[in-house]
Amino acid sequence: MALRGRAGSSPTPGAKKPQHTQHKPNVTRLEKNEIRLHYSGFIIFGAQLLSITTGLIFTLLLTRNMTKPEYGIWANIFDLAGYFLLFSGVFPFWTMRFVARRKDGAAKTGLLANLIISLAATSIYISLTPLLTSAFNISGQYVLMYLIAAAHIINMHAIVALESILRAKKPQAIGYGLLIEEITKVTLAYVLIVRLQQLFLGALLSLTISITIQVLYYLKLTSNDLKEKIQWTYAKEWLKGSTANIYNAVGNQIAASPIILLFLLGGQAARGNYQAATTFSNMIGYALFLSYALYPKLLADNNHYKEIHQHVNSHPRVRAQERPGNNPGQAS
């Protein structure tokens, strides 16, 4: 005779019915991996393709109203600013990884650390601007334009830091931000350059204002992450592990030095011609953005490896290679 109260039988009179509580994992919205590979990749890729059109329009607005030497000076402004963006990617390199792994305070720490670097870099840039313009034999009427470009240094530090946060969570938002920046830039450039006849000032203001709007858009998207407590211990850890990143940044900037030599030895017009040519050649690399969301998705959680593996193996070319007889190393 079966014992009363055992599993599958009725409980004995007066006995408490066992409570079987089903524990559901407490997974908040921020803890979910919401990165969509196809969607994010194509949004960013599409935004880059659209930026080709807006970039060409902006370039035409400049080249149709500037002489070749003036366009060379325009390019030189951002050549020099690039040296003061040297360390802008050091902390964002780690910020993306820590945010993807859901480390509390990583987003706020990365942004503030990058802004501190930007303030130091901007201060040095402003103090050296008169000396640099003199060394490059640039007319004094353009010194103010070089000084206004200091805002670009701060904006770019903020953009790099905020995009590292968004790339770890919502990579597609970077594509939307690029669309906002490009459309705003072209619209302002048309009004300031064509309508108001403000050539250099209009071009710089349109670029600066459009990137500032992009920064504000990113700040709105990351507002919840930026409410977390800052963790300066992260910054110390990142700094200790950034030796290779710093070497890489310095090496890349040294590789860009021939552009400075082109401006010095070839003249302002030669630099302008080179800048116009690179506008078209840069289009080739936009295809890389199709896989932009893959890396942070892999970082977020190792449990998603099976999903990535299944996605890769579902490709027709991969399946064809796995069929019997298609393996070059397989014995016939």
Rg from Cα: 27 Å
Portion of residues in beta strands equals under 5%
Tally of strands: 0
The CA-CA distance between the termini, in Å, is 65 Å
Q: What is the structural class?
A: mainly alpha
Q: Tell me the overall shape.
A: globular
Low confidence ranges: 1-33, 317-332
**N to C succession of SSEs:** HHHHHHHHHHHHHHH
Arithmetic mean of pLDDT: 81
Helical content band: 55-70%
So what's the oligomer here?
Answer: single chain
- Domain module tally: 1
The total count of helices amounts to 15
Largest sheet: none
Task: Report a brief summary of the structure.
With 332 residues, this protein is an all-alpha fold.
Commentary on this structure:
Helix content is 67%, strand content 0%. The protein is mainly α. It has one domain. Helix 11 crosses helix 12 (268-281). The longest helix has 30 residues, at 106-135. The termini are far apart.
Please give the structural blueprint.
Blueprint: H1 37-63, H2 68-83, H3 90-100, H4 106-135, H5 143-148, H6 150-167, H7 172-195, H8 200-221, H9 232-240, H10 243-255, H11 257-266, H12 268-281, H13 294-300, H14 305-313, H15 316-322
Helix pairs in contact: 1-7, 2-12, 3-4, 3-6, 3-13, 4-6, 6-8, 7-8, 11-12
